[in-house]
Write a structure and sequence with these properties.
The chain is an all-beta fold. 0% of the residues lie in helices and 74% in strands. The protein has three domains: 1-67; 74-133; 134-238, Beta Barrel (Porin), CATH 2.40.160.10. It has a 17-stranded antiparallel beta sheet, with no helix packed on it. The two termini are 34 Å apart. One of its GO terms (molecular function) is protein transmembrane transporter activity.
Length: 239
């Protein structure tokens, strides 16, 4: 079968206030497709401790997502408040509050509160979270009314990294896990990534840098054994 062709136009604006190699404010990111669907993000630094973000998405001429985030970073804690799709006319809103506190240099504890309201429905979910960071590994655990989520990441050496993820959903009575790894070959300028999950989905990505050009070629393949689906493709990254 042959699907419909589509294309996207992307644009990014970076301001002159750079806090780190990966943080620049203000930042504007936009993506529009050939059918008129728009995705946009705006990031702004109000003060040294307060950061804001706005996200907008449309499906052709209809707004589907409008979200506003505010984050406050203290000396040893972080607090975040998110408003998702607030609508005064239909009296619907999703409110998410996060709080993370550094107990020690390695242990972080916190929680999340999710409140949602729409016509004829209202509810609140509370989740507790913990993260422990060692020299070569990181472990996380989330416990809530809907279930539990745990992850473990280990850096064996400069070339090998592995990770495993486990999730149990008490409402759906389902459990799942996923395993992934990354192999870096610096002498060959190559990175190989692979994963396997409990739904028998297998995937692999091979990235190859082509010096001295600022070009990276990536080849990927994904196979779902249960649904008998196979996808493959390649990409060229310049920069």
């Amino acid at each position: 079968t042959v699907g419909h062709s589509n294309y996207h136009l992307n644009t990014t604006y970076l301001g002159d206030q750079q806090l780190s190699p990966t943080e620049t404010f203000p930042t504007f990111i936009g993506d529009i497709s050939n059918v008129g669907s728009l995705s946009a993000q705006i990031l702004h630094l109000i003060t040294e401790r307060i950061r804001t973000k706005a996200v907008f998405q449309t499906q052709q001429a209809k707004f589907t997502t409008w979200q506003f985030d505010t984050e406050y970073r203290g000396d040893d804690y972080t607090a975040t408040l998110t408003l998702g799709n607030p609508d005064l006319i239909s009296e619907s809103v999703i409110v998410v509050a996060h709080f993370l506190q550094s107990m020690t240099s390695q242990l972080v504890l916190g929680g999340e509160l999710v409140y949602h309201r729409r016509a004829g429905e209202e509810g609140t979910i509370v989740t507790l979270a913990g993260k422990y960071t060692a020299q070569k590994w990181i472990a996380t655990l989330n416990l809530g009314y809907g279930g539990a989520h745990a992850s473990y990441y280990h850096r064996a050496n400069d070339q090998i990294q592995v990770g495993v993820e486990f999730e149990a959903n008490t409402r759906l009575q389902e459990t799942s896990f996923a395993y992934g790894y990354q192999l870096t070959l610096p002498e060959a300028n190559m990175i190989f990534k692979g994963f396997l999950d409990s739904k028998w989905c297998v995937g692999a990505v091979l990235e190859k840098k082509i010096p001295p050009l600022p070009v990276t070629v990536a080849l990927g393949a994904f196979l779902n054994h249960w649904k008998h689906r196979f996808h493959c493709g390649f990409s060229i990254i310049v920069g």
